[in-house]
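Per reviewer request, we include the raw input and output of the structure prediction for the construct analysed in the revised manuscript.
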Amino acid sequence: MSETLGLQLAPWKRTNELVAVGETLREVLDVVWVQDQMLARNVYVVLTALAQTGCGVGTNVTHPIARNPIEMAATIATIGELTTDGQRLEVGMGTGGALVSSLFDPGKAVTAVGEAIRLMRGLWRGDEVELDAFPELGGRLGYRPGAVAKLTFPVERQPSIVIAGVKPKIMRVASELADGLICPSNLPTMSIGAFQSGRFGELSGLDAAVAARPADLAPLRLIYGINVSVAPEREAARAYARRQIALVAGNPRLWPDLEAVGLDLESAADVKAAFDAGLGVDGAADRVSDSLCDGLVVSGTPDEVVPRMAELRDLAAAYGFGDFYIGAPLGPDPLEAAKLLCNQVIGEVWPERMLRT
């Protein structure tokens, strides 16, 4: 049984379509997470629309590398005024993806995340926050020496902050400062292969993160994302999944992680070669092998995805994960995928949700 169940949306469709997905699943889910992707639809605008419809909302994930945490804190607190006590209000944060790194200097990104958490929480508490205490953010954003920031309105609901990341430094930030940790199944060291290797805690960094948690803090919330692509037609679902996997497999920095969990390195090299040849995401996706596809994203028809999602749920639950979300890409038609998830999938994987479908 999950404490919370969520859904992750990628901002690749029109905002009204994304809101329709949230509305379709609102009675089944506790929170709709939205990815913060540079140059895509604005995450905070989408969250505002979702909150207005009654959905619990959260970023999964945002980042302070290209944003000002002062504005982030004010924006999230403003969105919170649209929610009720029964709606979740979450901030998932990380260091940004490949696009962020291609546009902005990623140096000391982990330090920036830690500073952003402390700054945002101070603002939500109503503190007069001395910006000199945040030198990395100040250097990036040009805070004036001696400047002090304080929100002009009270924050009635304190959002929770959870961290997504795979390296030791960001895991330590999660341990020391955050409320929880996000682990998505489409990252090799957090995939089904990592569980089956018997080394999940080591490969994912989770064991070290839990051990480093200060004794005076509540235990870390452990949130597991099961990345899914579902459609009535099997090949359509799997083709859409391959597009997502190509973006992971084509990154050589992740190849040691792929090798560590026994995934197809030859296919990954073919994917990168397609990108290098200028074939784009479509050309690279054609080179994703079936084993690589199955290792990172659950894809297929509803009947096919249910047992594989249930397997991942059980593996994660046995490792201490209590919260779950169904992760992007969802399917080639997100609204159709939402209806399939609502009517044919969620109640099978999480039976306690059956009465709510």
